[in-house]
Specification:
335 residues; 2-enoyl-CoA Hydratase, Chain A, domain 1; 11 strands; two-stranded antiparallel ribbon; flat
Length: 335
Amino acid sequence: MANRKLGCLTIFLFVAFCASVLLNFVLAVAAFSRLASNARDQESKPRFRETLVDRGAHGNRDKIAVIALRGLISSSISGNVGESMVEDMRIALEQARDDDNVRAVVLEIDSPGGEVTASDVIYNAVVTTRAKKPVVVYMDSVAASGGYYVACGGKFLMANETTITGSIGVIIQTLNYEQLFNKIGLASVVFKSGKFKDMLNGARPITPEEREYVQGFVMGTYDKFLGIVAKERNLPADGLRNTIADGRILSGRDARDNKLIDDLGQIEDAFEKAKEFGQARGASVVRYGPPFTISRFFRALGKAADSKIELTLPKQLLPQLESGRAYFLPSYYAP
């Protein structure tokens, strides 16, 4: 009799254990499903994480959003949230526009410029934001060429006295290696559908007609840049063309004297100016940064596991310009 009771108890405990394991398994699957769903939601609508820079008045929910544009402007550079750094800038500016608590934006630029189209895309995103909320641009060490192009979209432009800016111009470059080919006995064979199809072919000299065509393209793009500067800064285009818009770089002080910017100061002065324009003296200042997501965590683990030796080139040797692409860059960045 005792053995029968013990056997029944054993069976009961076993069934209870199996039921518990099954229940825990179902709960675990449900939890992972919710986690995956949240991760998908974050991926479908990415948002930047806010880091507090300066706490505002107690109980005041107003914010000044600080968005940083750093390094080469290029659609080929991967983004932290979007597919590229250009998409990152668009997402960050949109987030600031849609946040009712954000009263103004400080766009902090530290960039020598970059691709023409990428610069134009970010400029238009800044202009769209400016139409809804004040955008104060603060130029850090460098805000030249494409960096200045983007800055023109702001309501108020501020720089340090020693900031490098200006460099209003366009550059396209290619490499001619015909003489090298001749020395080693190589020849380029090209089949083309039209006379201009290989006009930047480095294996042969550029023809006068090709040179004229490329120069015309460069000047057309330059005229667009010049027109934006003239419109946004309320300056005559011809006056700019014949003076400071010849590709030269300017210090922050020279830029102010030539009305390319509005004032000189430090980043804290830009915060105060944004609070003034946003009518939010008691606002907190928050900086946008990449969010933590499950996918980013696993990507970081993958990168950590992928052991490799990297050679970092000196900054002045970067960026490496791609042949045939148009850039808003100072001439000293062209190798």
